[in-house]
Design goal:
The complex is a heterodimer of chains A (174) and B (432). By secondary structure, chain A is an alpha/beta fold. Chain A is built from 5 helices and 5 strands. About 2% of the residues of chain B have low confidence. In chain B, the strands form 5 sheets. In chain B, strands 1, 2, 3 and 14 form a 4-stranded mixed sheet that branches. Classes of the chains: A alpha/beta (174), B alpha+beta (432).
């Protein structure tokens, strides 16, 4: 943890956001190897993130997402992404432009993150500000602890950026 | 079977099931030469992870066997240890554990009905397509699933890997205000539950009967969830301690999850088996609703499983209301207990069927051996038997895509949790 603390990015200014501007951060994962990354990342981010308008949730399968993304102003999904980038990088996506290029690494029930968000959108349940932070892994058996440790500073930076963005536009969009 | 076309079907990834598995089907000259439900994910070795652990650690660990049915694993484990230590819980603990289980049945069944099974019967590839035409139905499913998750969280602190259960009771008793809020939501959900039963009964379900043996718990006074004797439609009636003497697990070459047999025959566990063996213990209101819908249990039609799940959603909602309506917060959420050496077993009804645990514990209260038999592994042999029956009964002149969908629909009737049994399904199509 000392290493992580030394690399901590200074948190963004805590804007006075009201409850309608709460940002729900949902970590998707399972107990299987690198698929633990989404859960582990959220648990670690919760302990080091200074911004208090985040609402933290863990989710076992993307199939649960449509019910979890309701009644919030913005949502950030954190999930492992299998691709050819070095492990521990963060791919930041915003709905709906580029999701179809990044399928989830472990989609159960045939419903990955993209499909779940598409379902929520079809049901008019998806917040207008929806983001996905994909933590890259190189294989499914990879150690999630190592991956998340590498990705943590960039994840925190992305959350701060999203929070700043929501704060800057929120008073005009409520 | 008169179809002479040689057919080889391979599904590399079974969709709309929990976990991953494979189906291999080879038909030559109209005869099924090879049919395998292949599960080849490496074993997860949970039973080994439990060795040396104390009971309350075991309860938290086994919840992680499955992220969709953690309550079932916790309830089975905690009662196995309580049986060993001769712990007799209070009526409050017993009732609230039943509410806890109601939450899991509701969220698991609602997810399966709407997201996994229903698209098959309405001609959609997936829930997203279905939602574009049946938005209100899908929203209802998500509402029920969320309610089930919140019922679990009421006692478990969260629905993913709940942490509220300990030997002797719970770590926390919910406040009266929290219970009142959930009762309001349960009352509002009663109409959803009625409509769900009617809607599933109205689906264009195939009328295909077959012979199979149902196995489930049976309780003298209630629809079984957390306790009861193990019975079967072939006359079995045993205590959970007698399970190993009657049920045999064995390894098959094409699956890393064990198969189970009763008297050397496949058998069915799950909602259809439960309702078949406990139809007389359904509330009269539910019985009348099913009759109105033209559905009669016991049923030998596996496609009635979706209606059985809807009926159990109805039952879970109404049972939870009944058990919570006079709720008072106790001063203690658990009773004291003393560890002892010995053997503890228990069986409960997970959403997908009978779940059985056995623990041997030493004098220090640490686990020496653990054995867990999940419902999906018990159903594997039955699924293969069903697939064989189904493919022998249908017109094999249909295109391979139609045959593949039929196979997947048959498998989805069982709502397999391959994560519990161990993982992955791919369907291989090989043509000769």
């Amino acid at each position: 943890m000392t290493d992580i603390a030394n690399r901590m990015i200074k948190p963004a200014t805590d804007h006075a956001l009201n409850s309608q501007q709460r940002i729900r951060v949902i970590g998707i994962g399972s107990h299987h190897g690198a698929d633990l990354s989404g859960w582990l990342a959220c648990e670690r981010l919760q302990t080091i993130t200074m911004i208090n308008q985040f609402d933290w949730q863990l989710c076992r399968t993307p199939a649960q997402l449509p019910q979890l993304v309701t009644n919030c102003h913005a949502v950030v999904i954190v999930d492992a992404v299998l691709n050819n980038q070095p492990a521990g990088q963060v791919i930041s996506l915003s709905w709906p432009v580029t999701f179809d290029r990044y399928p989830s690494v472990c989609s159960s029930h045939g419903i990955g993150v993209f499909e779940a968000l598409q379902l929520a959108s079809t049901l008019d349940q998806l917040p207008s500000h929806t983001y996905v932070l994909g933590i890259t892994i190189s294989n499914r058996q990879q150690d999630a602890t190592v991956v998340v440790t590498e990705a943590l500073p960039q994840l925190q930076q992305e959350l701060n950026r999203i929070a700043d963005h929501i704060a800057s536009i929120g008073c005009h969009n409520l | 079977m008169t179809q002479q076309r040689d057919i080889s079907i391979k599904v590399p990834v079974l969709t709309r099931v929990e976990g991953e598995g494979a189906l291999r089907l080879q038909i030559k000259n109209g005869v099924i030469e090879d049919l395998q439900l292949q599960i080849y994910e490496p074993p997860r070795l949970f039973e080994k992870m439990l060795l040396g652990r104390e009971p309350n650690d075991v309860i938290d660990i086994v919840a992680r066997i499955c992220g969709i049915c953690p309550v079932a694993y916790q309830m089975t484990a905690v009662q196995a240890f309580e049986n060993l230590c001769e712990v007799e819980v209070t009526p409050w603990i017993r009732a609230m554990r039943r509410v806890f289980y109601c939450g899991e049945w509701l969220q698991s069944h609602a997810l399966h009905i709407h997201m996994l099974a229903a698209p098959d019967f309405l001609g959609f590839d997936n829930i997203i397509e279905m939602a574009s035409k049946h938005a209100s139905v899908v929203r209802r499913g998500l509402r029920l699933q969320a309610l089930g998750n919140d019922l679990i969280a009421l006692f478990g602190a969260r629905s993913v890997h709940p942490v509220g259960v300990q030997v002797g009771g719970f770590y926390h008793a919910p406040a009266v205000t929290a219970v009142a809020q959930i009762i309001e939501r349960l009352q509002a959900a009663k109409q959803d539950a009625d409509e769900l039963v009617r809607w599933t009964a109205s689906l264009p379900l195939p009328a295909e009967e077959q012979q199979f043996v149902s196995v489930a718990l049976r309780h003298a006074n209630e629809y079984p969830m957390n306790e009861g004797r193990i019975i079967s439609s072939s006359g079995l009636n045993i205590d959970c301690h007698e399970y190993p003497a009657h049920f045999r697990e064995h390894q098959v070459p094409h699956s890393t999850a064990l198969h189970a047999l009763l008297q050397d025959r496949p058998y069915l566990v799950g909602p259809l088996a439960r309702i078949n063996l406990n139809a007389d213990n359904l509330p009269i209101e539910l019985h009348n609703l099913l009759t109105t819908c033209g559905i009669t249990f016991p049923s030998q039609n596996m496609f009635h499983s979706i209606v059985a799940r809807a009926a159990e959603c109805w039952l879970a909602i109404n049972e939870a209301i009944h058990l919570l309506q006079d709720y008072t917060q106790p001063s203690e959420a658990a009773i004291p207990w003393q560890a002892r050496a010995g053997s503890g077993m228990m069986a409960t009804e997970a959403p997908r069927g009978l779940l059985w645990h056995h623990y041997e514990v030493d004098a220090a209260g640490q686990v020496l051996t653990a054995r867990i038999v999940p419902p999906t592994s018990q159903n594997q042999a039955r699924i293969e038997e069903d697939l064989r029956h189904s493919f022998e009964s249908i017109d094999l002149g249909q295109k391979d895509d139609a045959l593949r969908l039929h196979g997947e629909t048959v498998i989805r009737n069982y709502d397999p949790c391959i994560s519990c049994a161990t993982h992955f399904l791919q369907l291989d199509v090989r043509r000769d």
